[in-house]
Amino acid sequence: MQTFEIKEDFLLDGKPVKLISGAIHYFRMTPGQWEDSLYNLKALGANTVETYIPWNLHEPVEGTYDFEGLKDIEAFVKLAQEIGLLVILRPSVYICAEWEFGGLPAWLLREKGMRLRSTDPRFMEKVRQYFSVLIPKLVPLQSTQGGPVIMMQIENEYGSYGMEKDYLRQTKQLMEEFGVDVPLFTSDGAWDEVLDAGTLIEENVFVTGNFGSRSKENAQVMQNFMERHGKKWPIMCMEYWDGWFNRWNEPIIKRDGQELAAEVKDMLEVGSLNLYMFHGGTNFGFYNGCSARGVLDLPQVTSYDYDALLTEWGEPTEKYFHVQKAIKEVCPEVWQAEPRKKEPMNLGTYPVKESVSLFATKDQMIQAQQAMYPLSMEEAGEGYGYMLYSVELKNYFHENKLKIVEASDRIQVYVDGEHQTTQYQETVGEELTINGQPDKKEISLDVLVENLGRVNYGFKLNSPTQSKGIRGGIMQDIHFHQGYRHYPLTLSESQLQAIEYTAGSNPQQPSFYRIEVELDTLGDTFIDCSDYGKGVVFVNGVNLGRYWEVGPIRSLYCPKEFLKKGHNEVVIFETEGREIKELHFSEKAIVD
């Protein structure tokens, strides 16, 4: 059993150790990828792996917990130990991580007025419930009990959000109550305002910083802050940003490998670091995060490649070898090796077997919920994916005004089955003019609302806009309409299985397309989405994530673990009236 202490140095079994760590998110890749990724981290010259633990992934429905498959944090930590790595865990209820709502579960939004990341008793009771399940799973993995976990995080970049020290104290007390006895830490930016607001240094909680450049300058800020509080702790950058995340309709962000290696060298000369990200992986499903810029929310892409040292699919980059060399120059005694390689495959082209309009099959897929006024996505369902609102309006046989009030995020309006308009934050609430059919007394109105991803960082976490769907209502003329049928489209396995493909095809409406794929060879691959509009792709029931023609990434990564030898089923949900006729696999990512 190893001992780990934080004094003037990090001490492992009483001897000083420099922590050379890399971030690998177990939940952004398949368990079959973990070993190669962890091995490549060790081969880099690292001795530690770090990961967040997202609350919303493990408690997707309040009181229902899931730690299976790619959510098996215990298996990931044990595998890291087998490979010879120490582990830093970040089980804080908020993680940022460019992850949906920063890891906070959507169901929290049903509690109107509850203040997140605060001592609001309603919030802390939810945290207690979650920690009562999560923390006991982590306790046996601590170095104090023979495991590899040397540190755990209380909160993440709290100084960039709040300054309520009692919230940090209550969170710390909960972790300790449920058995955490390894050193605890916080991580914040490297400037005084956020360090003052976000740390518990006065209660001996270790302080780490997050930055990705000006290593010695930022390290000096950290050192000065700790010295002012009478601490002579080692310097640790908990997130050394080696790349960056990407948003839809913006160019891919890249960082030069040699420039990064020079900065890593500077950092290792003055302290320890955790490369964020070492291997980024993928935002499978509806878990991509969203940036907040002024009044706008800017959703992030499905790929979390991050321009990291390993690609999204795990292939070592040129950057990997530059950093490996820099580590050796500062720490010549580290063990290093050639990394394992990954080569994706082109699995061919397959025709669409059948298709159906969402409007034709919605009642087979979902039992509609009826209410006088519109329910939000959190009130009517789990809060992810899409919500279809179906309404019957009286036809006055002349032009009628229509307005959708307070809705998020992307709204597509269909009048008698025909697409009328698509609205975003900037245009939601703008008045429309609609006409009914001359031979019908009613107008069928369908409004498809997509949750593009809740913000993961900043001031909007407590904003009403993070409640998705229609919050206000639909106005016909100048009054609010009453009488709604709600179809929460989480596109779960049971919903996909209930699709009735014979119900009626209409490619101009949001539609499902089914493709059968026979395989005798399996391999990692990409689905080419460059001819599609916008939607999501399911492989054997697994949601690979969102595609969107605006780019910059026009493919979806499909790990071989999601495929089977023999028969496979792919379902595409396309929302833009773009008829899909074929499925193309590719051996490479398709990037603008």
From TrEMBL:
Domain Beta-galactosidase galactose-binding: 510-568
Residues at the active site: 157, 239
PROSITE patterns registered for this protein in UniProt: GLYCOSYL_HYDROL_F35
Keywords: Glycosidase, Hydrolase
InterPro entries referenced in this protein's UniProt entry, alphabetically: B-gal_1-like, BetaGal1-like_ABD1, BetaGal_gal-bd, Galactose-bd-like_sf, GH, Gly_Hdrlase_35_cat, Glyco_hydro_35_CS, Glycoside_Hdrlase_35
Reaction(s) this enzyme catalyzes, per UniProt: Hydrolysis of terminal non-reducing beta-D-galactose residues in beta-D-galactosides
Transmembrane segments: none
Enzyme Commission identifier(s): 3.2.1.23
Glycoside hydrolase 35 catalytic domain span: 10-329
A GO BP entry: carbohydrate metabolic process
Pfam family, one: BetaGal_ABD_1
Gene3D superfamilies assigned: Galactose-binding domain-like (2.60.120.260), Glycosidases (3.20.20.80)
Domain of life, source organism: Bacteria
GO MF terms, alphabetically ordered: beta-galactosidase activity
Enzyme class name: hydrolase
Residue ranges constituting the Beta-galactosidase 1-like first all-beta domain according to the UniProt record: 374-489
The family this protein is said to belong to: Belongs to the glycosyl hydrolase 35 family.
Cited PANTHER family: BETA-GALACTOSIDASE RELATED (PTHR23421)
Protein name: Beta-galactosidase
Gene source species: Enterococcus rotai
